[in-house]
Automatic annotation (TrEMBL):
Active-site residues, Swiss-Prot/TrEMBL: 187 (proton acceptor)
Molecular function via GO: pyridoxal phosphate binding; transaminase activity
Species the sequence originates in: candidate division WOR-3 bacterium
Superkingdom of the source species: Bacteria
Membership in a protein family: Belongs to the DegT/DnrJ/EryC1 family.
One protein family per Pfam: DegT_DnrJ_EryC1
In-chain residues carrying the UniProt-annotated modification N6-(pyridoxal phosphate)lysine: 187
Keyword tags: Pyridoxal phosphate
A biological process from GO: polysaccharide biosynthetic process
Entry annotated with the keyword Lipid biosynthesis: no
Protein name: DegT/DnrJ/EryC1/StrS family aminotransferase
Length: 370
């Protein structure tokens, strides 16, 4: 019996072990533990990779979102439109900034925010939109920027799941006024701890974020305002610089695996496989299927040593943390219908063809009653 974990970070580490080990020792030898040259090198290289003028590293993806919102002066009495089907950090950062998240339902085909519903949510209090490139597939940024420009709104892309994804051959993270990344270990570009950052083409925004992440300071012990301690550690900058060189190769392998899974799992009743938009390059941070038999399928796969996960089991408007917003059951019918049906199957670049084929075999066996 094959064993297919949901994610195998150890396998990836061993593929670059010598490079990583040497570099981590180097960080120690130079005692460059917080910000410093290894973080600066990553900031420079990641900005070059994206094609933006600036990239400011932070401690987490959540702190990156928080910094970006604050840099644009978003706060009390402001509203920010965010998808209801996403990880809580997207909306959480809006609350942290003192503003109000306004949820939008997800598209029934690609699970990203439903752009057709955004304009009805815009009010005189709306300041920004945060599109999330969910599961590694780009939002239609051409359409979204058209809406934002029409209403003079700020766009902050949440690229926590879309490192290297594109829309019409342009990188996610380069369309909006700023974009935020997470480098949590399981991401397509993951650190060995926590990490995040903000990309922008605005010098003013990048400089503001540099101060926000450093206690409101650009010059040591001179504090222009009350900020935060959102430093990236030197170890993470060093690891991310090494891993960045492999990102396109790893993303390519994810797409190969996704296409293999899609082909093998096509035309199964009650199993909806991921849709791949023709206008973008999907980087498959997650490979998410949808079925009304989610719990039974999950149990069957677990019994056959196949790891799974759920992204996400509860739409944000149903969470206690956002109950003060006044939403109720039925407000977001697509998200509510899909939440009990979504199941993430194994997806990582070191996954073998035989492991992918084993997943296909066991999913088919479930639907064939074997």
């Amino acid at each position: 019996m094959e064993n297919v974990p949901f994610l195998d970070l150890k396998k990836q580490y061993h593929s670059i072990k010598n490079e990583v080990d040497r570099k981590l020792v180097e960080v120690c030898e130079n005692t460059a533990f917080s910000l410093g040259p290894y973080v600066e090198e990553f900031e420079k290289k990641f900005a070059e990779y994206l094609g933006t003028k600036f990239f400011v590293a932070t401690s987490t993806g959540t702190s990156a979102l928080h910094c970006a919102l604050l840099a644009f002066g978003i706060g009390k009495d402001d509203e920010v439109i965010v998808p209801v089907n996403t990880f809580t950090a997207t909306a959480e950062a809006v609350v942290m900034a003192g503003a109000k998240p306004v949820f939008v339902d997800n598209d029934p085909i690609n699970y990203n925010m439903d752009l057709s519903k955004i304009e009805n949510l815009i009010s005189h209090k709306t300041r920004a939109i945060i599109p999330v490139h969910l599961y590694g597939q780009a939002v239609n940024m051409e359409k979204l920027m058209e809406i934002a420009n029409k209403h003079n709104l700020i766009v902050i892309e949440d690229c926590a799941q879309s490192h290297g994804a594109t829309y019409k051959n342009k990188m996610t993270g380069t369309f909006g006024h700023a974009s935020c990344f997470s480098f949590y270990p399981g991401k397509n570009l993951g650190s060995y701890g926590e990490g995040g950052g903000v990309a922008t083409n605005s010098f003013e925004v990048s400089e503001k974020i540099e101060k926000i992440r450093n206690h409101g300071s650009k010059i040591k012990y001179v504090h222009e305002f009350v900020g935060y301690n959102y430093h990236m550690h030197g170890f993470q900058g060093a690891v991310l610089t090494i891993k960045l060189a492999y990102l396109d190769k790893w993303n390519g392998r994810r797409l190969e695996l996704a296409k293999r899974l899609n082909k093998g799992l096509a035309n199964i009743d009650d199993l909806h496989i991921p849709h791949i938009d023709e206008d973008g390059r999907h980087v498959f941070h997650l490979y998410v299927v949808r079925t009304t038999k989610r719990e039974d399928l999950k149990k069957h796969l677990q019994e056959n040593n196949i790891g799974t996960n759920i992204h996400y089991p509860y739409p944000l408007h149903t969470q206690d943390s956002y109950k003060n917003l006044g939403y109720k059951a039925g407000d977001f019918p697509i998200a509510e219908e899909y939440a009990p049906q979504l199941l993430s199957l194994p997806m990582f670049p070191e996954m073998t063809d035989s492991q992918a084929d084993y997943v296909i075999e066991k999913v088919k066996a479930f639907y064939n009653g074997k």
